[in-house]
Design goal:
Blueprint: H1 2-17, E1 25-27, E2 36-45, E3 50-56, E4 59-64, H2 79-94, H3 103-108
Parallel strand pairs: 1-2
Antiparallel strand pairs: 2-3, 3-4
C-alpha cells in the first residue's frame, strides 16, 4: 500500500511538471507569475511525533506522517527533523527530480544513523 501511494505521488508530480518543454516555472515567492507554481512545506503534529506536507499551488501533493525508508511506522521525533526532510523533498521537486528519498540522504542530514 505504501509503495502504491509513493508511486501515485511520483506520477502526480511527474504529470504536474510534464515530460515536455512546457513544464511550469517554479517559484518560491508569493508574487509568482501566472505560469509559475508555488511549492511549500509545512509541519504538523502526529499522534506520536511530527510529519510534513508538501503543497504545490496550495494543493497537497505529499502528506508524510512517518519517516520514509524506515521499517515500521515511526513519526519524526521533532518538528525540525520533519522540516529538514520536507526541505529535501521540496528541493528535489524544484530540481525536477523524483521526490524519492534514500537512507543515505536521511543519514547525511542527521535523521538516521
Amino acid at each position: 500500500m505504501k509503495a502504491l501511494i509513493v508511486t501515485g505521488m511520483v506520477v502526480f508530480i511527474a504529470t504536474l511538471f510534464g515530460c515536455n518543454d512546457t513544464a511550469p516555472k517554479i517559484s518560491d515567492n508569493n508574487n509568482a507569475h501566472k505560469d509559475s507554481v508555488l511549492i511549500a512545506s509545512h509541519s504538523f503534529k502526529t499522534g506520536d511525533g511530527w510529519g510534513y506536507i508538501i503543497t504545490v499551488d496550495d494543493k497537497i501533493v505529499i502528506k508524510q506522517t512517518m519517516i520514509p525508508v524506515v521499517q515500521g511506522i515511526k513519526s519524526f521525533a521533532t518538528e525540525e527533523d520533519a522540516l529538514k526532510v520536507a526541505s529535501l523533498v521540496v528541493n528535489k521537486i524544484k530540481s525536477h527530480q523524483k521526490p524519492t528519498l534514500f537512507r543515505a540522504e536521511l543519514q547525511k542530514i542527521g535523521i538516521l544513523e
